[in-house]
Please model this.
Amino acid sequence: MIHETTIEDCTVRGVRLFDLRHVVDSVRGNLAALEFNQDLPFVPQRIFMTYGIPSESTRGEHAHRQCAQFLICVHGECHLCVDDGENREEFCLNRPTHGVLVPPLVWAREHLHSVDSVLLVLASHPYEPADYIRDYNEFKGMVKEWKSMP
Model:
């Protein structure tokens, strides 16, 4: 059975929840697909994975100035909390067919990792330390400034 991609907007500005195109086949196994030029608003410039994270540890805890990210927990489970300075939403990523698009200027935190979790992240830009906003108060100030621009 073939399931087409569906995309749902969230209460957090610019964040979208994807149920990826996937095929369920009890004989040959399942397949999930993501078309970069069709499904994502960017072509990934960097891909990385986090894994082996203790369940009490937190990853992320930052926003980006320019980089957008697409997160998929391809194995196991983790929770993703996103925050645009006004709205906050949390997702349980526990299927390789679910992904979340996190645009720039959205705070993201990954936590509650299962022992076997593998989080795949596709990034719109190469790694650039200056793109990271690691202080939440600085992030809130930037969002307020951005919103007041004409």
About this structure: Residues 2-148 form a domain with the Jelly Rolls fold (CATH 2.60.120.10).
